[in-house]
């Protein structure tokens, strides 16, 4: 039996000079590779001085015991601060330094080794375009408005509660894409025609479906015991939606087994919206 | 003069078994350390088979020239697929494998080496809570509704166009936090009192300000030449807002030099919303 098999969970820290988003994401990907081990996670963002590095080290070292060595994932780029962090008695997993050396060799250049964040404001234009995309998404959510529907880069179509709204917000917020979304309702299912306001924009449409079981469960939370939430109604709507998508050659995905990030990535790939930035 | 100093930009690829979000984020953090080098970036997500790995290798290798070695950042975890990717003639920067070995040593465990994504659905509960938070945010955006204002975990307060809405959506979407936001308008500035509907929830409030120059510019895009967009009006509102925040001990940030991610990270840290997950 190894030391780390003990009942107590292993502390895992995510240290960063910025928001800690990258440290947490990549650290968690690594932790996922150890499904048998329990972890308690904590993020320590904005480590921008040697002093705050010293504080962070004191904090993580306080969790070390004879049995358990905590894991410290770091994306800190500043060399002086990194050197301070490496004083930790825990296991220091540098998500940045080792790769940086490799890239230096390939590029025949020295890295700046400056602190920084993947999530700092890079330029005002980028910020403005995110803001505009989010505002567009809110205005054009759930068919609430068609004012600037012609400006949409993607129009998400789906029966109620299949995940249109979060996917829309994600594409707007993370990728500054102008996304409208439009609900498919009973009257749309009477024919295989696209809803009239959307019909001119079939080439921008993207469908979302789900499974009847899942959709019925989600709808049931909102209106328990209703026809709207019944498996039969959900199955009917999903079949009609799918047939509409096929008729009009509208690509579609099933949201029941995908995360919002995955749906967004598929939509962008399919609609060729992977912008260079 | 080194090979990579040539005029043509260096191709940088982000390869992943999932969405490619982590590969792109961390890869870009590394590229940021080389401000003098021009890059063209491309993401290749969803590499989930040896065949798709082979295709990816063909694609990246096609961009290699005698002068320029492209950079290939990868977060692919599956060993067989990784082995295939390593056949590339480009520089392969493994954002996963080397750190995994280190963690294996610390934990005295073997990693599962299974493909996976930081952004796949982990459980339905997490997905549902994101959906609910996004719906809450849309309903309570810009003071549009006060229906469930008592359920808010954070209430963002700011003069118009300081960045309340995107920050709200980010907190909801990425962290499943119930966030309402409320605009401060002229009548709120007549006294230092909090707006009446918000007053009972001062301990949940968080303020956003900006600089007069920046705010005037943003407002000018919407209503050019208006009093609303004038520097004088912006300055007045920002000063009054700041004084209101100070009076009620409401923490606040200046959005003009921060990204949405940074604002979200500060708000969560200040309001102690860094949940364990």
Automatic annotation (TrEMBL), chains A, B:
Pfam families: Kinase-PPPase
Enzyme type, top EC level: transferase
Classification via InterPro entries: Kinase-pyrophosphorylase (IPR005177), PSRP (IPR026530)
UniProt-listed Enzyme Commission number(s): 2.7.11.33, 2.7.4.28
Coiled coil: none
UniProt KW keywords: Kinase, Nucleotide-binding, Serine/threonine-protein kinase, Transferase
Protein name in UniProt: Putative phosphoenolpyruvate synthase regulatory protein
Described purpose of this protein according to its UniProt entry: Bifunctional serine/threonine kinase and phosphorylase involved in the regulation of the phosphoenolpyruvate synthase (PEPS) by catalyzing its phosphorylation/dephosphorylation.
Catalytic activity annotation: [pyruvate, water dikinase] + ADP = [pyruvate, water dikinase]-phosphate + AMP + H(+); [pyruvate, water dikinase]-phosphate + phosphate + H(+) = [pyruvate, water dikinase] + diphosphate
Source organism, top-level taxon: Bacteria
Residues bound to ADP: 158-165
PANTHER family in alphabetical order: PYRUVATE, PHOSPHATE DIKINASE REGULATORY PROTEIN 1, CHLOROPLASTIC (PTHR31756)
Family: Belongs to the pyruvate, phosphate/water dikinase regulatory protein family. PSRP subfamily.
